[in-house]
Amino acid sequence: MKVRVRFAPSPTGFLHIGGARTALFNWLYARHMGGTFVLRIEDTDAARNSQEAVDVILNGLRWLGLDWDEGPISGDVTGPSKGDRGPYFQSQRSENYRRRVEALLSRGLAYEHEGAVKFKMAREPIIIPDLVVGDVTRELTDREKLEPDFVIVRSDGQPVFHLVNVIDDLEMGITHVIRGEDHLSNTAKHIALFRAFGVEPPKYAHIPLILNIDGTKMSKRDKGASLMTYLEEGYAPEAVVNYLCLLGWSPKGNREKVPIKEVIELFDLPQILRHNARFDLNKLHWLNGEYIKEMSSDRFHELAVHALARVGIDTNRYDLAYVKAALDTSKQKVKLFSEVPTFADFYFKDEIDFDLEAAAKDFVPETKKYLKQLRDAFAQLSKFDATTLNDTLKAVAAASGASMSVLVHPIRLAATGRTVGPSLYHLLEVLGKERVLSRLDRTMSRMG
Ligand code: GLU
Q1: Which atom of ligand 1 is nearest to the CA of 178?
Q2: For residue range 354-398, what is the model confidence (pLDDT) as tens digits?
Q3: Is 115 exposed, middle or buried, given 0-12, 13-18 or 19+ CB atoms closer than 10 A?
Q4: What residue owns the CA closest to ligand 1's atom 3?
Q5: Annotated active-site positions, please?
Q6: In this predicted structure, what is the pLDDT of residue 1?
Q7: In ligand 1, which atom is closest to the CA atom of 180?
């Protein structure tokens, strides 16, 4: 049996971190088994639907790299290939639902009631076999004992979630339903519906919820609940994916940083942990720093350039070799891509400004004289590399009897406008002689 799984979000305008993890676990299982990962947008609630809300989901999945495998051909494409397809939209499938409801009605398994259609629910407990939580026996609630039947089509003609969810899983040949444990309470209804349609239900794997670090239920408003905050705050998607893998699943040996290729090899449903996961933002932050430290410089450049673009810095105006050299000096310094502008924006500015008055409080009376001596020494250099620059600074300090620290602070300010940043000699080397001299000149002229 070829595995077919799906992620079936409702477009609410928000992709919760728990939803992202559900998508990831489905995707991992499909990739592990060589199966198919279907994306289905459950958008039957017309009032809440919008293109933006759908985009939040699609962009989130794309950002995480969770590609879906099939669906109707979307847009104006010429050939059905991966990427041109899907997702499925329930709003485009109403004909299927109507046909299925007719079938239930004609077989006496559903009936009309006050303009709505109700499903004749089983009058006995239903056992839900679950690959994660084990067998769950669902007894009838007191209310269900009085009235076990439930509405599948509302009086306004709208089919309800339980019905369309089951019909699609059935028609799409879904073999495993991997979803949040909050849906366990719906599953008895779903199993009964599958049986009414004459098929055995898929296998279920209900994944325990994600709680806040203090054990409280994670709500929409909790910090870190929305996937998009990670994009906005400068996380690397591979670090977020890695962290999400560990929320409810764990490789042997308590490993934390596990490349996705390896997770795909190792991932399996029975290993999903039965207890709730706790969301630890500090750990994700740490993991992100580890990813940045160890990522290739090409990947670092790609993500850093995006982070700069987000604050309006267009690196395209500069020579590629310069951009790469500039970003290389920041790689070991940042833990989040949102920090990149603080460490590297000065490379991409025509003029450097800083609060000279505030800075001058830390200057010595001879600062301007030292800067002039340095400028003249730099101007003589034919080699403008970090070692030569370091030697030159030492020589100027020695000649004028000043300590290095008295020189280092003003020159960093003149070159970058900031008091922190990449290693001074390396950043000067990357800026190059021309820029460094003109920045020193400008600072000296501002010093009057
Ligand atoms: N649309 C449902 C949700 O977003 C899907 C539930 C399921 O995966 O079956 O919660």
Answers
A1: 8
A2: 999 999 998 999 999 999 999 999 999 999 999 999 999 999 999
A3: exposed
A4: 9
A5: 220
A6: 83
A7: 8
Structure tokens at 123: 């009058």
User: Ligand 1 centre from 183 Cα, in Å?
Assistant: 8
Buried b (16+ CB within 10 A) or exposed e, 189-223: bbbbbbebbeeebbbbbbbbbbbbeeeeebeeebe
Residues with Cβ within 6 A of ligand 1?
Answer: 8-10, 42, 165, 177, 179, 183
Name the nearest CA neighbour of 187 among 127, 228, 230, 241.
127
Write out pLDDT tens, residues 87-97: 999 999 999 99
Rounded to an integer, the average pLDDT of 105-109 is 98
Surface-to-core class of residue 19, CB atoms within 10 Å of its CB (0-12 exposed, 13-18 middle, 19+ buried):
buried
Gyration radius (Cα) of the chain, Å? 30
Name the closest-CA residue to atom 6, ligand 1. Answer: 8
Q: How far is the CA of 116 from the centre of ligand 1 (A)?
A: 23
Q: Left, alpha or beta for 115 (phi > 0: left; psi -120 to 50: alpha)?
A: left
Q: Which of 144-148, 413-417, 426-430 has the lowest mean pLDDT?
A: 144-148
Return the DSSP state at 373. Answer: H
Tell me the DSSP string of 81-92.
-TTSB--EEGGG
How much is the average pLDDT of 151-165? 97
At 169-200, the pLDDT tens digits run 999 999 999 999 999 999 999 999 999 999 99
Closest residue CA from atom 2 of ligand 1: 9
Write out pLDDT tens, residues 61-74: 999 999 999 877 65
Q: What domains sit in the chain, N to C, each tagged with a CATH number?
A: 4-210 (3.40.50.620), 350-447 (1.10.10.350)
Question: Kind of pairing, strands 150-153 and 116-119?
Answer: antiparallel
Calculate mean pLDDT across residues 47-61. Answer: 88
Q: Closest ligand 1 atom, CA of 186? A: 9
| Cα–Cα distance measured from residue 39 to residue 74, given in angstroms and rounded to the nearest whole number | 13
Say how many Å lie between the CA of residue 231 and the centre of ligand 1. 24
| Substitution site in 165, 167, 193 for ligand 1 pocket (most atoms within 8 Å of beta carbon) | 165
Task: Give residue 81's pLDDT.
Answer: 45
